[in-house]
Write a structure and sequence with these properties.
The chain is an alpha/beta fold. It has seven helices and ten strands. Bound molecules: fructose -6-phosphate (F6R).
């Protein structure tokens, strides 16, 4: 596990540079993407790099980690809307090569199976970008999710509903369920980059990186992956006292 600590701007630049490096080494890369406030700066820089002619997404395929159940794709808080406005519409990616779980599918379990099949058919994820929830979730894999889990429907915990209420007009509007790639789906990626920013993430980052590997802290599973980069701003890193691990 490699750990980088820097300013928020350093984190955004490194995250974007790692993605550009991946695409340059394999123009038809399959990227696993995250939403939320953490990757916004990375996506802004990717758009700049695309506009400067540094990178083309023309042959890239993407799979997003998750989507809420039961809000329209056009809803400003949907992850479809997030990806479109933060990245996809600003770069030369083929919209048919972008994938986000359908949280309005009639049969959500069939949608989950289809999503896994599509990832497998694409050859698997080359580079998976992750944020981390205050309770240690990755994707929407809440504490106690089995490490063997594939894409599935999840009941969001109060911690996640509270954390995400800031994006909605009211707490009541936050969906109670989501479709998320599972922990196993994430761990199958060939390389993983987890980004965390801000003091509220410091404690969970310390537990994820230095604590025992346990489903109680889903992100701790990353200690078992052979190719992980953790990108932290100084505040998120403030709970780490010994980085020798
Ligand atoms: C988003 C996702 C979540 C977020 C996490 C952190 O697609 O899968 O795991 O990465 O909730 O969210 P922010 O970045 O808003 O703190």
């Amino acid at each position: 596990m490699e750990i980088f600590i820097g300013t928020e701007a350093d984190c955004d630049e490194l995250g974007a540079r790692e993605i550009v490096k991946q695409i340059k080494s394999k123009p038809d890369s399959v990227l696993g993407l995250a939403t939320g406030s953490t990757p916004e700066g990375i996506y802004r820089r990717l758009v700049e790099k695309h506009k400067n002619g540094e990178v083309s997404f023309a042959r890239v395929k993407t799979f997003n980690l998750d989507e809420y159940v039961g809000i329209p794709e056009s809803h400003v808080c949907s992850y479809h809307y997030f990806m479109d406005t933060n990245l996809f519409r600003h770069v030369d990616i083929d919209p048919n090569a972008t994938h986000i779980p359908d949280g309005n599918a009639m049969d959500l379990n069939a949608e989950c199976r289809k999503y896994e099949e599509m990832i497998a058919q694409s050859g698997g994820i080359d580079l998976q970008l992750l944020g981390i929830g205050p309770n240690g979730h990755i994707g929407f894999n809440e504490p106690e999710t089995p490490f063997e889990s594939l894409t599935h429907v999840v009941d969001l915990t109060d911690s996640t509903i509270n954390a995400n209420a800031r994006f909605f007009e009211s707490h009541e509007q936050v969906p109670r369920q989501a479709v998320t790639m599972g922990i196993k789906s994430i761990m199958q990626a060939r390389r993983i980059i987890l980004v965390a920013k801000g003091a509220p993430k410091a404690h969970v980052i310390m537990r994820a990186i230095k604590g025992p590997v346990t489903p109680k802290v889903p992100a701790s599973v990353l200690q078992l992956h052979p190719n992980v980069l953790i990108i932290l701003d100084h505040d998120a890193a403030s709970g780490l006292t010994d980085l020798s691990k």
